[in-house]
Amino acid sequence: MSDQSDELELMVAGDESGIRMDVWLTKHLPEMSRARVQSLIKSGAIRMAGGKSVKANLKTTAGMRLEVKVPAVESVDVVAEDIALDVIYEDSDIIVVNKPAGLVVHPAPGHLQGTLVNALLFHCQDLAGVGGELRPGIVHRLDRDTSGVMVVAKNQVAMDSLGRQFSERTVEKEYAAIVNGVPHPGIGRVETEIGRSSHDRKKMSVNPSSGGRLAITNYHIAEVLGDFCLLRVKIETGRTHQIRVHMAHIGHHIVGDAVYGKRGEKQRLSAFLAASGRGDALAKRQMLHAAQLQLDHPVSGERCCFEAPLADDMQKMLEALRN
């Protein structure tokens, strides 16, 4: 999925008919002012599913679906920074990196430095301007505390090709995750809609307040580790927090997930590791790692497979759990 803009899909609930469109949208997009919503409507960034335009004074009807595309922030100087990169592969068209946990992918208001984009601008002298000033070359994301393989476009041809591959779901993405408990069955498929949580707009949920987008996650157990296990996870879609939400949905939260984990899980794991003399292996972030990425090279067309070894903290936790 291209990351040139944030995309949301909203649906009008059965008891929300007859409300002005800009008023309804402001309610469901609390981070935006009514003036901002009106501006997005006027620019065509908010449309009905299928592409039909809407007006600010249009009245809502039950079941109406709306697509919201929020453009990236514009006209902000993003500086190149000498931040170390773990480069897996690089040529004149793409660069593939192993992103460490804790590194934000792209700048955002209030966080314009210390990101992967800042590091890329320093490393790739010809990257600036590709795909938008704030997100040059970025066609997909990993959460801040998720480690692993990412591909970045170095020119517009590569940007367009990779964006199309993500959109058409021909890119294969496989993750490693340490989760609480042991899923049954050991091989499974989770298919739901994912959207903004009705209780917390900063979280995603399989029971969104309105609307939602199809999300498909496939997993299999790679190793059972007592009351925990290592999963290999392949996703067919790329929704925000998808793996974390789906694992929580089936009752097997990712270890260390402070947002979607259950209360008390950290204490239980801490006690378990301390008892085995490996308190140093306690997770300080969600144990989720993008292990493998398969795609067609944007110029040669050759099928490529890029892999990133497990991050040190995940490897340390696995060793502790095995012992």
Write structural notes for this entry.
The longest helix has 12 residues, at 156-167. Helices cover 21% and strands 28% of the residues. It has 323 residues and is of the alpha+beta class. It has helices at residues 21-28, 34-43, 116-123, 156-167, 242-249, 265-275, 312-322; strands at 5-11, 46-48, 65-71, 87-90, 94-99, 147-153, 172-180, 187-196, 204-205, 213-225, 228-235, 288-296, 303-307. It is globular. The model has no long low-confidence stretch (mean pLDDT 86). Strand 10 (213-225) and strand 11 (228-235) form a beta hairpin.
Give the helix/strand layout.
Blueprint: E1 5-11, H1 21-28, H2 34-43, E2 46-48, E3 65-71, E4 87-90, E5 94-99, H3 116-123, E6 147-153, H4 156-167, E7 172-180, E8 187-196, E9 204-205, E10 213-225, E11 228-235, H5 242-249, H6 265-275, E12 288-296, E13 303-307, H7 312-322
Parallel strand pairs: 6-12
Antiparallel strand pairs: 1-3, 2-3, 4-5, 5-6, 7-11, 7-12, 8-9, 8-10, 10-11, 12-13
Helix pairs in contact: 1-2
Measured between the Cα atoms of the first and last residue, the distance is: 39 Å
Which range does the strand content fall in?
25-35%
How would you state the average pLDDT, rounded? 86
User: What's the CATH H-level superfamily name of the largest domain?
Assistant: Pseudouridine synthase
- CATH top level of the largest domain is Alpha Beta
- Specify the overall morphology: globular
Q: Based on the structure given, which CATH architecture of the largest domain is correct?
A: 2-Layer Sandwich
Low-confidence stretches: none
Helix-strand pattern: EHHEEEEHEHEEEEEHHEEH
> Which structural category do the helix and sheet elements fall into?
alpha+beta
CATH fold group of the largest domain: Pseudouridine synthase
- Quick one: how many beta strands? 13
Q: Give the count of helical stretches.
A: 7
**Domains counted in the coordinates: how many?**
3
Biggest sheet architecture: 10 strands, mixed
Radius of gyration, Cα only, in angstroms?
Answer: 21 Å
Helix content: 10-25%
